């Protein structure tokens, strides 16, 4: 070749698919997609209405769990789910769907506030800067989001509606008879006209405003209460149960958490416990997540029983009312409100020394024990292996069936948050009660006949006897005898007996507690609530929303020494007296009010964000009903409605997912939405892990600077220890997507993350392995573009049959894999096809090249868009039809059948895939190699699995 025909090295490089070319292609097409609104999904009405033909298609609403915009930016583990939903959304568009896929930002919360405290930077400033950085990182990945629908929870136009929803909940009550929420005004009307009795028996007109408010507070779905809460002095705020770790520390910051009585806002999620349980059955969720929610809600059937205690009645919940005759003592949770009411001044005569805990008086004993219990988490308190502790209160209750006086203890193994906070202790038939009774030398009475031959004297037992398949004994009292009855019969009989006497009833109990909704923080949604001079709460009218956060000089709540359990909250908002104290006209003239100075928890904004995606610019309604019905309404296969696919981590099973379901049901009951459930299909993606390295001090060192030599690892010349764990800043092993995009391009990163393994399992990151997907894209490029000239090399004409078979098998397999979120196997099939086309060593026919590009488009959209246009097309590849496999080419013409004799392969036969067992057996038995292997031996059995196996046993 002459010198004039040889391209210069720069020219040759210009047509190779390199990181530099990938960067150019990706940036260019991202600009085009944005300019052309390529990913905009039309609504059926409103400001985002669009092409009616697109609206008429089947719809798909695809969501990722809300990201929090961290100042550290993204590492390569963060976008795993975002890339997966993007691939799925692209495939759904190409298969004829109107796809809504967008992303907003969950931006209230503790990290931004802590940063503000450290630096003096307003949380909004740092958060918005983090959002912009995250948007740039995500855009670089080519995520096909409808950017018109994006927002942050800190936008006043957004949290106006979060506050509005709070008021809907506040101004509602749960009507158990109708099994739904109703406006509180309807309850007030019933009290006024007498159709519903006012608690306490007085007429509604006789009550003062404060008394009416107290009555309604007992019904409202959002209510204030003075109740035991999880107080974290180190953070200066209270926490929900779900935010406290098993060892009694804050999930964020790892500070000690104590039980303390404070007035706080709560959500009456317990009213929905049955519906939250029942509706799980219709959801397409991982069974493990359903089970976590079922266990957290914790439904159990039993009875409530009243025990007389002085002038009071202590109510217990028990799942075994049949064992009531065996109750020999009672235990209250240390936080039980009745404890302070009946403690005597001195120990009763004859009190066992072990009952007193070494204290001189009951008051001293109870005070000391309550302080000790407050430092433990609920999980610690209920640990099976721990020693049982407690103290006698100095008082006795009356067993309602036997009339016996039984001592009343407080013990930390009883929780105020479960049942009534009080138990009847039946030590002969409950292991925890048995251990407690042994520790405190308490009597035990056998009332369920042991079936294991141990006898009926619990003093001789090693543990309690618990059985649901036994007969009752020693259970006869005034007007009732359970002796000889089975457990089920005895339960029914004693429950009826209790109900007849008005001292009990059959009931259902739940482990689920009401949701603590107050936080002593600055960076959260203000409550749209004010208090009058009598302390009565009033809701702000919608015209006063949003109630925006004021500027403050000090963003931090008052924090205390982590172990200061007696401290009390002081919120940042309480320091702005000019904001707290206001003059307002709420409809009855201008009056003085005091604003609520707590803020909502960071979960509030994520309880309803799926609805804002639908109608993001609506200033007059939460969401247009027609739009909500279109995207989320009930439909075939999804009777409760909801998002079509929701992808995120499994760690939110009993936090965000449970809270969002509750809000959705309230909004449904009140007629604001048609969907009972927010998320129909849930998929939990795995985690990208990475190696981390620690030096001899156990301190993490930068993973990027560690060298491997002869199977050992060194940092700055010193050997370090390798471990496998979560990728992140703290472990100094984070790899940013920007780094990989610089070195290989975004399409390579997308392919690698999807190819690493099944989406729902965790997988290790290996930067060295990324190059494999980079080479796949380079081969794809070379199959269509001449690297020396940049010319497209495809030819016209019909492909060979072997090419068509490879192509259509890949289309069939990869297409079904993408629809099933099996992206790793889809990539494997595409790689196999691309390699086969490369090895063929001939130019691709246009029809093959085009379908290959369309096949790759959901996974690597930038290179696909570039190649699609180089192939002469003007429309975006994003909206092309996904190729359809021809069944004639998917089925093999022949299948290789293995013939085994005595378990060893003796022949391989090429047979039609439709061959019958009889035909295959005859063919195998006449094969020369098989005949020789048999050697005339007697055949005992022939096992045929057409068309792939014949096994001959001799």
Structure description:
- This protein is α+β, with helices and mostly antiparallel strands.
- Among the domains are: 190 residues, no CATH class; 212 residues, Isoleucyl-tRNA Synthetase, domain 2 (Alpha-Beta Complex); 62 residues, Ubiquitin-like (UB roll) (Roll).
- The protein has 30 helices and 33 strands.
- Strand 14 and strand 15 form a beta hairpin.
- The relative contact order is 0.11.
What is the C-alpha radius of gyration, as a whole number of Å? 35 Å
**Overall pLDDT metric:** 93
What is the CATH third-level topology name of the domain at 299-510?
Isoleucyl-tRNA Synthetase, domain 2
Instruction: Please tally the β strands and state the result.
Output: 33
CATH class of the domain at 299-510: Alpha Beta
The coarse overall form would be globular
Q: Spans with pLDDT under 50 lasting ≥5 residues?
A: 1-9
Task: Give the biggest sheet.
Answer: 6 strands, mixed
Number of helices: 30
- What share of the residues does DSSP label as strand, in percent? 15-25%
**Share of helix among residues?**
25-40%
Overall SS class: alpha+beta
The CATH architecture category of the domain at 299-510 equals Alpha-Beta Complex
What is the CA-CA span between the terminal residues? 68 Å
**CATH H-level superfamily of the domain at 299-510:** Valyl/Leucyl/Isoleucyl-tRNA synthetase, editing domain
